[in-house]
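hey so u asked for the seq, here:
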Amino acid sequence: MEKREALYAGKAKSVYTTDDPDRLILEFRDDTSAFDGQKVEQLERKGMVNNRFNAFIMDRLKESGIPTHFESLLSDTESVVKRLDMLPVECVVRNYSAGSLCRRLGVEEGLALEPPTFELFLKNDAQHDPMINESLAETFGWATPEQLQLARELTFRVNDVLKKLFLDGGILLVDYKLEFGVFNGEVTLGDEFSPDGCRLWDSTSREKLDKDRFRQGLGGVIEAYEEVGRRIGISFD
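ran it, structure tokens below
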């Protein structure tokens, strides 16, 4: 597959067109950022770790019947993915209270949430990804009611699969975000699933094993990502 021009460069990933109009190359970089880009660093091995982590998770989800854009690993830091028409909406599920939920509602961190919560956020860096609802998404044309319903259903199916996967490795899936797009008329999981976009805690000690280590200056960020990966069966060798 021929890698062509850069289509998009985000905070930690770049997207390239290819000689196949329906396929893109997703490149995971070592860049790491937090607080809307106010804190930025390069963390060695991060691109490789997140690329392999994402590939493993996407394969597990595909095995469970969840449509994803992931097709194959191309290199240590690159993957081939389907080209989706992305919905500018993030779907967030919370199994435990943490982060912005605690700040917004004044609840303590670590409460088990039954049932898990589901929230929508608009992907808009300039507006700091504001929370929205289904009515706003429909009114402004960000997604149709049918697309939103499918995205919600798929998000909770992901939750069922990944909660067990991580718990079997002694890890709590605290919360996460997913992004969806449309490929050949089908709502399909896009973007990535890595410790950059979710919270993962050791189930016994509640040690943070995700990007909060970077946000909070705890150190050992990539080591924590690799520890999570090893516990669920990912090889980084």
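The chain is about 30% helix and 35% strand. The chain has a mean pLDDT of 96.
lmk if thats what u needed
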